[in-house]
Design a protein that fits this description.
177 residues, Pnp Oxidase, Chain A, Split_barrel_FMN-bd, Pyridoxamine 5'-phosphate oxidase
């Protein structure tokens, strides 16, 4: 799980492209997907906060916040652009920010209301993707994907869900094919 700053240091052009798409209307805008208690997806619009130190979100008391507190997995997709169909996607884990200095500083900088029951979460990044479409071939976007070094592969995650090791998860998929 990489922080935004670690991700941006590793692939600065990709990070800048994602930042531009998330902040294309000024403040950050995107759709946050979380995992409901029954395992299904939940999607809500949010205003992510991007700083040089991290990717954050102030989340009010809501089902979305309870999802993040229970199962920190998230996906964040950029808000659609008006002039093109470019898109950005991030996925990873959200964790509550407990350092009062950070919380106070970000709340002040981003005008988070002190009278609202919100919690600040930092989003770490396991996967980042940007897709750019040009007018000449809009059906075939140029896609750039970054996977956090050392992050589990899809088959490893599948194995963990099924309680299997990496080898058996790969073997199960090969046998099923």
């Amino acid at each position: 799980m990489a922080s935004w700053s670690e991700f941006a240091a590793d692939v600065p052009r990709l990070a800048e492209g994602i930042r531009r798409l998330l902040q294309q209307y000024g403040p950050g805008l995107g759709y946050l997907a979380t995992v409901r208690a029954d395992g299904g997806p939940r999607v809500h619009p949010v205003s992510p906060v991007l700083t040089d130190e991290g990717l954050f979100c102030f989340v009010i008391d809501s089902p979305k916040r309870r999802d993040l507190e229970r199962d920190g997995r998230y996906a964040l997709h950029s808000f659609p652009a008006e002039e093109c169909d470019d898109e950005a996607y991030l996925a990873g884990h959200a964790r509550p920010v407990t350092d009062p200095t950070w919380v106070t500083r970000l709340a002040h900088q981003h005008r988070a209301s002190s009278g609202t029951d919100w919690r600040l979460f930092e989003f770490t990044i396991d996967i980042a993707m940007i897709a750019r479409r040009d007018a000449a071939s809009p059906a075939r976007p140029a896609v750039h994907v970054w996977l956090e070094p050392g992050a589990p592969t899809a088959s490893e995650r599948l194995g963990r869900v099924r309680g299997a090791s990496r080898t058996s998860a790969v073997g199960q998929r090969a046998e099923a094919a």
